[in-house]
Amino acid sequence: MRTLRDDTERFMLRYKFGMDEVLTKLSILREEFAQTHAYNPIEHISSRLKSLDSVIEKLERKGIEPSFDSIRETITDIAGVRVTCSFVSDVYRVAELLTAQGDIRVLKKKDYIAEPKANGYQSLHLIVEVPVFLSTGTHHVAVEVQVRTIAMDFWASLEHKIYYKYDRQVPDALLEDLTDAARTASELDARMERLHRELHGAPVRPASTRPIAV
Predict the structure, then answer these.
(1) Amino acid 96: pLDDT
(2) Given Cys at both, which of 39, 43, 82, 96 links 209, Cβ 3.0 to 4.6 Å?
(3) Which of 178, 184, 164, 77 has its CA nearest to residue 118?
C-alpha cells in the first residue's frame, strides 16, 4: 500500500510540474509584453490540479478500470491552466504564441468561440503536451489550457455556480436566460473589439507565430 501511495503521488506530481511549465511560459510572455510592448494581451492566469478522487470519479463515469496507463490515455484535464484576455483577438494571439514554442505539442483543439456550445459557452480549449524533466527521465504530460475573454470567463463562472446550486437540474427558464446572457457577452466582446481596433488598429502578429495545428 505504501508503494502504491508513493507511485500515485509521483504520478500526480508529474501533472503539477507540467502545469508549472505551462504557467512559466505564459508568465514569461505576460512579463515580456508588460516590459517591452505598449499593450499586454494577458489579463489574468490561473491554474488548478484535479484531486485523485476527481480523477477516479471521472474514470468510473467513463467505465474505465483505474490504472496509471488508463489515466494517462483518457484523462487529459488533470492539470488545467486558464488565461483571461480582454479581446477575442488576444485569445488567438496568446494561443498562437504559446503553441509556437518548440517543446509544446498540441494534442487537441476545441474552438468554442468559432462554434459556441448550445448553451452559449465560448472559450478556446487546447490540450498541449509538455516535457517534464525529472531524475527518472523525461515525462510527457498533457495539460489543458483554456483561453477566453473577461466576458466569457464571467459568464462561465456564473454558469458553473448555477449548475452547482441546482445540482445540474437547472430550470428551463434559467437556462434560456443563461443562453441569452451568453449572446449578450458575445455582442459585448465584438463591440469592445471594434472600439479597441479604432483606438489602436489591428494587432501586429509576431513573425514567429503560426496557425494552431493539431
Answers:
(1) 97
(2) 96
(3) 178
DSSP 208: T
- Single-letter code of the amino acid located at 73: E
Task: Give 68-125 as a DSSP string.
Answer: HHHHHHH---SEEEEEEESSHHHHHHHHHHHHTSTT-EEEEEEETTTS--TT----EE
Which pLDDT band holds residue 141 (cuts at 50, 70, 90)? very high
Catalytic residue among 144, 159, 187, 193: 144
Is residue 162 within 8 Å of 174, Cβ to Cβ?
yes
In the annotation, is 21 catalytic?
no
* Cα–Cα distance measured from residue 130 to residue 134, given in angstroms and rounded to the nearest whole number: 13
Nearest-angstrom CA–CA distance, 59 and 180:
34
Residue pair 46/81 in contact (Cβ under 8 Å)? The answer is yes
Give 172-182 pLDDT, tens digit per residue: 888 888 888 88
DSSP secondary structure code for residue 166 in this structure: T
> How big is the CA angle at 120 (ends 74 and 143), to the nearest 5 degrees?
30
pLDDT 10s digits, 64-75: 888 888 889 999
More confident residue, 48 or 192: 48
